[in-house]
Amino acid sequence: MSEFLLHILCLGGIYAIVALALNLQAGYAGLLNFGHIVFVGTGAYAIGLGSHFGLPLWLVIPAGLLCAMVISVLMTLLGRQLTADYWGIATLALAEIIRIAVVNEDRLTGGAQGIGGLSAPWSTGDTAADTRIFTVIILLCVIAATLASLRIGASRFGRALRLMREQPQLAICMGYALPWLKCRALMSSAVMCCLAGMLLAWYTDYVSPDYLLSSETFLIWSMVMIGGIGNVRGVLLGVLLVEGLYNFIPFAKDYFHIGSDLTGALRLGLVGLALLLCLLTRPGGLLPEKLRTLS
């Protein structure tokens, strides 16, 4: 398998983990989190700062996970007095505040230049060998995230999240504390995203504020909605299709004589068009969620 395909597979695997994490919030719990990418950035910057200050991994990884969970708790607190739509805007605002703080804190985070030289613990120094190792590790992580998502969806916790999404008043009557359910969903998602961010930092050997751009959140939302929100298999299909569209453009631009300056805009435009067509023809996604009903 060529290095390019392995590269696409690695990035696609990381996006798959992040999309599955978003599905825990949006698909199972019905939470409109537009600041989802901040959890990925937290994991990536945990690795970057740990490398910058020479901290051991046994300290860096738990610290990164803890920071991601703290942010998820802050997001939960934001939603106590806000409806779903306004809470989504608040999460976007929180993510942007964190991104701007990262950009302007030059001495700690490297500012807009980011932090480089982030060698993975299993790095051998051979690029080809490292790519193959990363491919295996990321695929194993995708399998683990998929199994965890399926397990959560079939568990009592997953059923409670769906009940909160569909009938919040009934969930309250049945004794569920909705803020605590939301907090657990966000924390579970934050842990998955944080680990994906750590993998991304190690794989790219670099971390920058670009990892916190809101456009990344909406790209992940597109993957989830195109594939089928609430359906784990649909989410994986959405990741595959959107990643395919994203990586089709570099080949198409030479064939259709498209300027390099338009490549980024064309990528987002194609994803937006695919999302629009999906919303018009299959609002539930290509593989919509199938809820069990009482007969």
Task: Characterise this structure.
The protein is mainly alpha-helical. 74% of the residues lie in helices and 1% in strands. The chain has helices at residues 3-28, 37-53, 57-78, 84-104, 106-109, 127-154, 156-166, 168-173, 178-204, 214-227, 232-255, 263-281; strands at residues 115-116, 206-207. Strands 1-2 form a two-stranded antiparallel sheet. Helix 3 (57-78) crosses helix 9 and helix 7 packs across helix 9. It is globular, with a radius of gyration of 19 Å. The mean pLDDT is 90.
Which properties best describe this structure?
single chain, 295 residues, two-stranded antiparallel sheet, 2 strands, 74% helix
Q: Structural class of the helix and strand makeup?
A: mainly alpha
Span of the ends, CA to CA: 50 Å
Low-confidence stretches are none
Spatially, the strands of the biggest sheet line up as: 1-2
Structural shape: globular
Quaternary:
single chain
Largest sheet: 2 strands, antiparallel
Helix proportion:
over 70%
Number of strand elements:
2
- Fraction in beta strands: under 5%
Tell me the series of helices and strands, N- to C-terminal.
HHHHHEHHHHEHHH
H/I helix tally: 12
Overall pLDDT level: 90
Radius of gyration: 19 Å
